[in-house]
Branched-chain amino acid transport ATP-binding protein livG
Amino acid sequence: MSRPILKLEGLSKAFGAVQVIDDVSFDVPQGTRMALIGPNGAGKTTIFNLMSGVYTPDEGRVIFDGEDITGLPSRKRIGRGLARSFQNIRLMPHLSVVENIMLGQQSRVSGPGAMIAPLGRRSRWRQEAEALLSEMNIDTYTGEVVATLPYGIRKKIEVVRALAAKPKMLMLDEPAAGLNPSETAALRDFLIQISETGTTILIVEHDMSLVRSLCDRAVVLNFGRLIYDGSTRDVQNDPQVLEAYLGSRHAEEAVHA
Ligand SMILES: Nc1ncnc2c1ncn2[C@@H]1O[C@H](COP(=O)(O)OP(=O)(O)OP(=O)(O)O)[C@@H](O)[C@H]1O
């Protein structure tokens, strides 16, 4: 197995009296596609927030690409190569597709004028954003205003915007939420295409058939604890995972999908 690009070591986080994450450790090997799953409220988004620097853990460490980034602000983590797309689309709806991609490049710019540098009309940033859209085969939409596009296309653009930061690892929070089956299949193929360029992918996703067709390995959380770390082929037969899902609205999917 390749070396881990990300290591979570004994992460814990409480909100008030509630222990939301409890001593969670796992590795993400470089170049893999891995899933982080679990019932509603298990702590998946909180783990993403700890990884991306939205929250600081009470205990434990986040090691990315050999460096301890536990105390590093979010923006600097993106600069190190750890990028994230969010559960709900956060594109700028009134801007064009290419302008949204250029906003994703900002983490690579520093100094005076950093916020607007990429938005110059003929800048090398624009050329690079256009090239990225072309590489990802969605350049038909380059000049379109985001608000006018179908939901499935906007989800792809959200992923491409995260890629504009040139990440080593991409964290995706429920990228298939709200997509129909053909849009989901297109997104899966798109994510495989991205990972084949060498980008590591960690995905939070409730759609178990997408998880199994995209990822080899899954880690499962329940009540903030890690209860499974292994193959996606065997996950639905694991007794602890079955117990965690029983009674939840995802039990059917987990067992039969
Ligand atoms: N900022 C916060 N303050 C207090 N409680 C929080 C906070 N963020 C999350 N929680 C609680 O932590 C628990 C885990 O939430 P989290 O959103 O990480 O779960 P999840 O696995 O992502 O759930 P879902 O699948 O529903 O998105 C929940 O009980 C939630 O209410």
Q: What stands out?
A: The chain has two domains: 1-81+168-257, 91-166. The pocket of adenosine-5'-triphosphate is lined by residues 15, 20, 38, 40-46 (CB under 6 Å).
